[in-house]
Specification:
Elements lengths: L6 H4 L3 H17 L5 H20 L11 H13 L1 H5 L6 H37 L4 E6 L2 E7 H26 L1 E2 L15 H7 L4 E2 L3 H6 L2 H27 L7 E2 L18 H24 L13 H25 L1 E2 L1 H8 L6 H10 L4 H17 L9 H7 L13 H7 L8 H17 L6
Parallel strand pairs: 3-4
Antiparallel strand pairs: 1-2, 5-6
Helix pairs in contact: 2-3, 2-6, 2-8, 3-4, 6-7, 6-12, 6-18, 7-10, 7-18, 10-11, 10-12, 11-12, 14-15
Length: 447
Amino acid sequence: MRLTTSIPIDIRLIEHDLAATKAHARTLVAAGLLDAGALGEVAAECDTLLAEWRAGSLVPASTDEDVHSLVERELTERLGETGARIHAGRSRNDLVATDFRLWCRARSSDLVRQTASLIEALARRALEHKGTVMPGYTHLQRAQPVSLGFHLLAHGWALLRDAERFEAARLAADESALGAGALAGTTLPIEPLVAARELGFGRVFDNAMDAVAQRDFACDLLYASALCGVHLSRLAEEVVIWSSAEFGFVRLPDDWSTGSSMMPQKRNPDLAELVRGRSARGIGDLTSLLTLLKGLPLAYDRDLQEDKEIVFGAVDRVLGCLEGMAGMMTDLEFAEENLVVAAATGGTWATDVAEALVGRGVPFRIAHEATGRLVASLEERGLDLSGTDMAVLTDHHESFDATDLSFADPRVGMAARRGPGGTAPHVVATQAHALLERTKALAPPED
């Protein structure tokens, strides 16, 4: 019993199991296998059981192997013969598949909403900092001047794709398995559409064997969760780096950092580090479920009992990480002066200067080489573009112009990228509003 029981895990499905039981009772009425008066009794008792569970007064018996046996036992004890009729035309196989789909559908909606909260926090900060210049990086080396708002929106667009994947996972789960029976349907005149409509499902199964055996919808949800965890980890990693003294781009508020047990001066980015660390477990969860499923013969196998613990943990984890990151990104304090200084050093102006030559008809490779020589010459002399003059520029190519010196101010290069998806403040504002509109359009229905 200790080995086979799953009720400590699947008790989380009790709300959905009771809803599915009421829906199945309505199906039995439609099939002439249960009278309408009994339907009212079943529905009322299911509501009572849910209220008792929420109040903490419904306690599983030692013989209850899972949430389904708990509900069936309670209904039989309370309603006698009526309760004993409920399982007609139904198996635990199609019941658990339906319960699990209901849970995944509801949690996918929660994940869309929580991801939207983080996206909105990033978009608000992006609008606030659409003109705050900072260095953009490749290979963690300073590359080109961008705005802080532009950088934050890059995370926001990745998270929008996560929200879209969560919505796709919701739609994947939006299919009722009730009526599939153990694997081959039933000889009773059951109409699966009745229960599906009662539970708000968008469709019913096409093949009874596939309905009880497949967990694609759970894999979709875990993949979306794992990739969202990867995106959260990348954002968290930047918070960790940016809050270090070596970067000094952000200051962590007290609510989102911790001190050291030994060193009084420490302000550790523990939340960001935990989000980064927990993404590893999300990847492991996806691998675990795929491995669990890979060798199962059709139709139902008891191995599938293990799917819920994997999915429940993964969803709980990413929901918590999304909520925490939304709070932290709202409260982060950005060191704008340090960002400007960093953006103005390291030759971040070089690409803009090279492109200015291209605009005057110089082939790009020649412009690239001339600008590279200019950068090397200035580095040897310990200078940057702001400390030089036209004579130095024309030494490296005759097409350099006095206006090129303006790129020493990183805000000039940032504002010059006015094309679609660029870094100019008005373009960043357009991106932020578009991101908010796309996010708002994803709002899922309330289950």
